[in-house]
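Collaboration report, partner site 2.

Our partner group contributed sequences for two proteins of shared interest, and the home lab folded both. The records are reproduced in the order in which they were received, starting with the first partner submission.
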Amino acid sequence: MIFKTIAVFVLATITSVTSFSQTSPPAVVEDFKPSTLNQPGQEYPQVNSQGYARFRVKAPKADSVRVSLGLGGKGGTLLTKGEEGFWTGTTAGPMDEGFHYYNVTIDGGKFNDPGALNYYGSVRWESGIEIPAHDQDFYALKEVSHGNVQQVLFPSKSTNTSRRAFVYTPPGYSTDKSKKYPVLYLQHGWGEDETAWSNQGHANLIMDNMIAEGKIKPFIIVMTYGMTNEVKWGKMKEFKIDPFQTVLVDELIPYVDANFRTLANRDNRAMAGLSMGGMETKTITLNKPDVFGYYGLLSGGVYAPDDLSGKAKPKLVFISCGSKERPDGVNKSATDLKAAGYNAVSYVSEKTGHEFQTWRRSLHEMAPLLFK
């Protein structure tokens, strides 16, 4: 059942970013500015104050150019050829606030926009565009003390290689050598990798800002590749958790505990994930309730009381999604868990779907609840 739920949640991303307003869109305001995710010096793509995006691509010999947005790049915006071989077009309506993947199709071939920075999603490096959000302050780069995100390579006997993880250590970690920290293991979704939460999600900036404001207890975040992309889209029921569970529980966690100053026990260890990473979180926390004390599913399914019955009781179950996903199911899950005596919290991100603004907001809501 969890795989069916994940498939529904993941599919929602396609409709959330390509099915714009269902009513007549407002008149387009001509106050377009370059996206904050553009390559240095590039004027396009651009975004206006209403959330419309405008694209401009040079392809003088092309017969057709289309920009496709969202996971998998479905639907899209047809561009019109103009002078000097430039193709230009504007989305049919405003887009959801936050980050979106996109690519450019030129005469049937899929390419990245040379004007935009690239982000790993859809099992490939995709172009990215940011629609400024009304609440973007919580992940803004500010003049506060910053933590450090470092790449580590940890040995994995089960896969016969060294694997990569990114580790966020909070401000002060390098100066106070006596202090130990709780750890959150934070997973990406299908089509993404261990770079997603830092690059697309701004997890480090979210943490830095909340620590500076005194809103959270500082903790370490570990982000590694969940091996989810080794199953093709449409074949998610065939995904087997065992290989990744071994990598995470038997190899990565011991490495982190040996090489970082961690509080190495269940009550100071959390696992959370977005979308298919939420599916991994649910499965592993149910398989290994003695390893993790805090659970987080971000657009990644739900827990039922029967799932947790007879196991070590979690200290927190956090469940979230966007309002354009299945919020009733998320809220009901939390209500049922509370009635059964569990500490459960639900959160619904307003006016977003299966996308990173939902997950940025979810991390922002979940982090203050961890390690209490």
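Second partner submission, folded after the first:
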Amino acid sequence: MQPHQLNPLIEPQFDAVTEYILNHLGSNVPLVESIGHYIVESGGKRLRPLLVLLAANACGYEGKQHIPLAAVIEFIHTATLLHDDVVDNSDLRRGNATANAKWGNAPSVLVGDFLYSRSFQVMVEIGEMAIMKVISNATTVIAEGEVLQLLNQRNPDTTEESYMNVILGKTAMLFEAATECGAILAGSDDESREALRLYGRHLGIAFQLVDDVMDYLSSSEEMGKNVGDDLAEGKATLPLIHAMRTGNEEERKQVREAIRKGGLDDLTPILEIVRNTGAIEYTREKAKEQVDLALAALETLPETSFRDTLAQIAGMAVQRTS
């Protein structure tokens, strides 16, 4: 079951967001429209815009502005995907060829810029200064997170603390902005707004940690990307950091060298080391800790079906396989 199908009350709103997104991808430049439609329609769950809808409803919102707000979050997410795939030189995303693989790096970067711009156009139409403040801050932190990840690339001395800062910026920040802005739009009190902000932050961290695990477990059909992509790019994600910390001297040496040189020549022995050192279990446990924090944050909200759905999504985050 897709996340938006967990709550029948949210499905019509989710469909309205999809329609809004597709209606606002128009451009006088056909290539912009083609790439925009391709990436938006490529099979993602649209979890982040769903979180906007659920957060707003959980706070009692009864208007319609949460539809364009959810689209804003998806436009920003899609822009980051286009830019990420260029930076990472990825050729597979959600089981499909990436936009840069089909059209080249330059068009992908520029269409990403277009989607960022379109998101701010829509935000101006919504007209909530507090929302613009949260989202403009989030996009800055996301960019910083991406740069920090780039600086950590092929660096086997990356610490767990440094890596957590990376995923807080590049992944969790947009989750956090999605849920906090839903609360702002609903005019919620400070306690509810903070609760939803923290829920989004901890859910986003958990989501990325599970992604880290799946890079060493899932097939490309399940994950929608190639197994070992993180290792190929020289990314010291948490499973590798834990493997270096707990493995024997030879295992540490192998993992460090694999991170330094990148590529997939050492994938098979690295997979074995990751599994033998308990790195998969350790990372999953860290993700579960984040989910528990997300669920605790929800406790201050009124009991509604929307709060229940947010809790279900948190539970699904650590169980997913794609």
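Feedback sent to the partner group on the second submission included the following. The first strand starts at residue 92 and ends at 93. The domain at 8-312 is CATH 1.10.600.10 (Farnesyl Diphosphate Synthase).
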